[in-house]
## 1
Amino acid sequence: MRVFIATMGTETNTFVSFPTGLDDFRRGLWVENGIEHEPASPWSAPAQTWLRRARERGWEIVESLHAFAEPAGTTTREAYEFMRDRILGDLAAAGEVDAVLMFLHGAMVADGYDDCEADLVARMRQQVGKRTRIGIELDLHAHIDEALVEAADLIVFYKAYPHIDYAERAEDLFALMARTLAGEIEPVMALHDCRTMGLFPTTREGPMIAFVAQMFEAEGKDGVLSLSLNHGFPWADVRHAGAKMLAVADRDIGIARRAAADFGRRFESIRNGAMLDLVSLEEAMARAALRGDKPLLMADTSDQTGGGAPGDTTHMLRAFIEAGLDAAVYGPLWDPLAVGICFQVGVGARLPLRLGGKYAPESGASIDVEAEVLFLKREAYQDQLSNERVPIGDVAVVRAADIEILLVTKRTGVFSPTIFTHHGITLEDKQTIGLKNLYRHRDVFRPLTREQLFVATPGVCTPDWGAIPFTRIPRPIWPLDGN
């Protein structure tokens, strides 16, 4: 067997002003000569998994581009078409292949292309014909409609939010593809539109834990091969937005349609109780005034780079300073200019420093502080899972108004407490931890904190769906239009 492997993706927030260009992909994941020796990360893991499994079977492997950018605004036409044409050109040069395996995001929007994934896979299908099987792994915060389903043979989404199962779902996709190529199964796929928008964590207390378990339980039974809930990405104004249920069955499209409808309706029945609970910044600050035996964690949800926000707004940090909080830490605040200044003056220096509010209109106002430089590190990282590192660029830690502030040169969210502890910041002696993140941190910070709040701060990733100026999403959609 000959298998072609590629990676391309970003998560596009169509409401931010700053675009995503080729340089953003090159600063993220950009591998042209083989993914095998790239450090393990959430973006390299799927392709690395397929390489290992293909080699174990003695299959011939043809690799193309592996590129992933941090979520941001609309991808430039030039960047998307360059990467798309590179992958299609490599596929043409490879000659006949039995299968294609690709890790795409699913919520990539470019100038002139509302659905980059469907555009790429449809062109690929036209190029390779029906004989070559195409399998795709997608982030569950994707957009999908029939165009992508018709172009692909197999689609598998993550099941976990926060995303900790990308390697496991890559294993699932490979196993299904191997069975397909062996003639054991003939996959067919069906979608059910849940007409839903929201955030539905799968590891917090609530109905999503049981729902995911039910999906796993049903797979491999009664003709059902795979089940995936596409949660959707709520900060994109595209016509195919919203949550959808995908079922993959063996040969019988009726089984796939019934399973998709069944599990789609199950999700619709629990969605209200599955939504992430949010509090106002004012309420969160009132709770922060109370001291406890462990820190209170406050997630600055609307400026989380994982949703395409700039990562340098100052609303929560300003509230910390104005409230006079002590024993507090805040970060990561994306501010390459401030980090560069800190490296010039060195550890121990004290200086006036302007923080945040620099990148885009969405960034808001900067804060002027008197800062002490506590820690500096080049090419820093945070840990993810047990064997992965997420680069965060150069780091400076400063103290201002009794708050330790983590400054970074690479836009990043929080994957683990090591984003602080690797950089001279202790957490056990803190009363308040402020994070620029949405939810990904929740489980790994839980043992360290007395309570975690998800704070609806101002920003382009606002969870106030009614405040987002949608004009193109499908209507009616829950919760904007009721049940």
## 2
Amino acid sequence: TDIRGWNRATQAKRQPGSSLKPLSAYAPAVDTGKITEVTILKDEKITIGDDKWSPKNSYDGFLGDMTVKEAVMRSSNIPAVKVLDMIGVSTSFGYLQNKFHLSTLVDDDKNYSSLALGGLTKGVSVEEMAAAYSTFVNSGKYIKPYTYSQVLDSSGQVLLSNSSNSTQAISAASAYIMADLLYSVVNGPYGTGRGAALSSGISTYGKTGTTDDD
């Protein structure tokens, strides 16, 4: 492929790591009423699934009881796996594919490790991740990305017009809760994304995700 024609935002596929957790586990669980921000989850050694998988955290050991808000803030893995277990792999996969419109998923991704920790077979694109995350600050509406809105000629006449339909991916209330959880990642005391906080008074939301070699 000619590198000059390679669009990294739309064509490059990368592993999302823990940045998948809000889409695959927490948002579906909030939206279906399984958890709230203050639901207590225990960060502990667990064995889960048919293959007897024992996930670990990015930090040493386990921290015991914590709220969902702290689990998202710290990007704790075991609470995310437990939340995925509450909603089920099929529900998680359905939200990613049908609500958040990630197009790269394959059947091999229907497992705890891929969905809870973000190790997907084909990865995801920046464009699709950005569109999915935008639902959290658009009252739960998913807006399909588009490149331009209008093209005008020299006299101001519209030559081309473009728009995108929106769909209600999650409830407005769920989106509000998710935005607050993502605010804590950047602004909270244990937030893994504190380095991305802005000091100019602009509210900042986000989620970290690491894969090979951090």
## 3
Amino acid sequence: MPSTSEFQMTLIGPYKGVDAGVFRQVARELHCHLQFVDAVFDEAVEPAKRLSPETCDVVLSRGVTVDVVKAHTSIPVVPIDLSAWDVLQVLQPYAGRVRKAAFFRYGQPLPGLARVGQALGMEISEYLYTTRNQMRLKLMQLSPADVDLFVARGSLICQWADDRGFATLEIIDGEISARRTLFEAVNVAHARRTERQRVARLEAILNAVEEGIVAYDARGQVNLVNPAAESLLKCSGKKAVGRHVRSIMPGAFPPDRMTAQEPEHGRIQTIRGTTLVINRIPILFQGRSMGTVCSFSDARRISRAEEKLRTSLKAKGFTTRYSFEDICTCSPSMQHLKEIGRLYASTNASLLICGESG
């Protein structure tokens, strides 16, 4: 079990549908803080919207409400699932007394349900639904005379069945469900927190560097722009993400070299009035290019840094051993070369003087 530092979890669902005391106890054992929100179906929309990734690591829910919550939050949702073992435990006391049972379930068929019926000597008919209206319609098509026991997970459908005269049995999620679900939720929360920490470190690094960084996928769609790149390219990072890289770095690379396999260094390109020195590194995965990372700097800043370095080295005594005064000559042509050399020495250009001996 990964170590936790009080993971924050929210269970959105009906209080009657779960053994809240058991869920809280198991959460404490796993060093998690679990809060409950009593809501089902569309009632879960607003609570889901109010959840913040800063205060909630994982959401727990069940049935139809799982999909409702998923549609309105970016926080991972772990369903409180049901197993054939759970159904077996619930129905075991009715073995020999119930011949036919109707089992209502959201979503997909429950694996192993037929074996549960065989073990208990019951004929269990499974009714699946994916919406509230579908749930009501299937219930209306079933007659209390057709079954001895109506079994479902959810207080609302059990209430509807009870109103129609069915003998009802609501499955309450207890310790087995709590442990299974919360163990999975802790693993999801741990993985999510680790990923968020990794992203935070990466963002801090990208924001700290003075070089502009732009990353785009194999189609050329931009997915990352750091603050330095915003400044150099004179564009908004939020607006740039999702656009094609050519729209924010026009002319930077030929169309046929957007996702080249080989890196490219030192490309000079003027973009929106700024001359940039651009490096491009492909993102390779299993031998295939998945995108590209471009790093670039203002050519003027590089030139100023180089000049500052030369000045610093000169101040520390890193100078030539000889000067033009050390060249002893009476030749007019050599005197002329020395004058030309002094002129060049006032610039940042390199100067090579060659003679007969090299």
## 4
Amino acid sequence: AQGHEGTRGRCGLAGVVGYLNADSGGNQTYQQPLFQLKYRATEKISFTGQAGEEFRQFESNIPNRSQFVFALNGVYDASDSTALTVSSRRETQSSAQYADENIIQTIYQAGVRQRFLQRLYVSVNGGFVSNDYEHNRATATVLRHDDYSFGRAAVTGDITARGSLELSYEYRNNDSSISNFGFTENLVSLGASFLF
């Protein structure tokens, strides 16, 4: 990779090459030429990201494919006790459920974390995931698309210098083009963490 540094940011080029062994599916090679950027808009706002095209070749009798891929992250440190984050990315994964399928996954999420009284933290996070299933060899017959959304709220307290407790609520919903895979979940949890 090479780059150019400016007053508040740096930009450059990067590349990724890889090989995916899909077990009983179609093996694949891929290349990703990428443009990348790190930028600090102010002392409190910063962004990092990369974007480019993915070229994928299959060791099966289907045509090669290409698609736009990216990864973006933003942070806003509103104060010493408040932080907001946003992120998004698109990537290709091998499906664990279907040997003949890849998943093109696009994720958007955001969150805020607020500190109270030095030892108490409240956080809220949420996001949306789009999963498109694509066959990696001609024998595949699955036609599936999932829209998954989630939201989570948590309260964390430092009870000692090395221990904390967290109470959280999480909502999950999956709207799938195959009805058997659709679901709605509500999860309440209590967790503890201690360092020795």
